Amino acid sequence: MAKIEIREMSFFYGEKQVIFNLSLDVIEHQILSLIGPSNSGITTTLRSLNRLFEINPEARLEGDILIDGKSIFDADTSVTELRRRIGMVFDVQSPLPMSIFNNIAYGPKLSGVKNKQEVAELVEESLRMAALWEEVKDRLNSPASSLSGGQQQRLCIARALALHPEIILLDRPCSGLDPISTARIEESLLQLKDQYTIIIAPHNIQQASRISDRIAFLLMGTLVEEGTNAEIFADPKDQRTLDYITGRFG
């Protein structure tokens, strides 16, 4: 079942078109990897799904994006609620300048959760889902900045999870991380897909092959090919896909 339907989406920054007539379904409770070289429109696609692009006055989207069959651009759509439903984690670790506990508690409190016990349970639940609880449970009042880079990135994932989203977007979340930290994040994502729909711009082709259920290959803003992990890596239909995944370009 498609959780997200992108329908004939074209995207412009001013007069420059960066995405061309993109149509793509995202299946519920799967991990979809968006792969492609730089300037392929991957980050723009991610930012379109929660309307984050709207902070740029020159950005313009044509086409439609549906979640559970409803357009995210309908007049009665609350952008705040949309961004709660669709959590996003960026490539640069960005913990808030506060304690580990308050990094997770901040969003729920802002959304109206006042009960201290409920907040504490949300913090623990989110840190457990991000595979970080055991490492930080005895220092929740320490500054988030005291964590390692890999821990900070998992903290950012936990922060997104604390708002109980339905969809998680990750824009190269393992960029700059060591292999051990990367492996822990990948393990978390494989467990989280049972509860969430996940779209990731992976760190590299190898990461896409390890964690993806489906893969979409974008090139210069155009969807070249989309399919299951096995279809893309074992039997790509387009020569450009084969060239990219074997390192012949990009």
Note down, in words, how this protein is organized.
The chain has ten helices and ten strands. The strands form two sheets. It has a six-stranded mixed β-sheet, sandwiched between helices. Helix 3 packs parallel to helix 6 (149-161) and helix 4 (116-129) packs across helix 6. The relative contact order is 0.18. The radius of gyration is 18 Å and the shape is globular. With 250 residues, it is of the alpha/beta class.
Poorly predicted runs of 5 or more residues: none
Share in β-strands = 25-35%
Secondary-structure element sequence? EEEHEEHEHHHHEHEHEEHH
Main sheet characteristics: 6 strands, mixed
Approximate helicity band: 25-40%
Q: What order do the strands of the largest sheet run in, or round the barrel if closed?
A: 6-7-8-3-9-10
**Structural class by secondary-structure content:** alpha/beta
Radius of gyration: 18 Å
State mean pLDDT (0 to 100 scale). Answer: 94
Summarize the structure.
This protein is an alpha/beta fold and 250 residues long.
Please tag this protein with its features.
alpha/beta; six-stranded mixed β-sheet; four-stranded antiparallel β-sheet; 10 helices
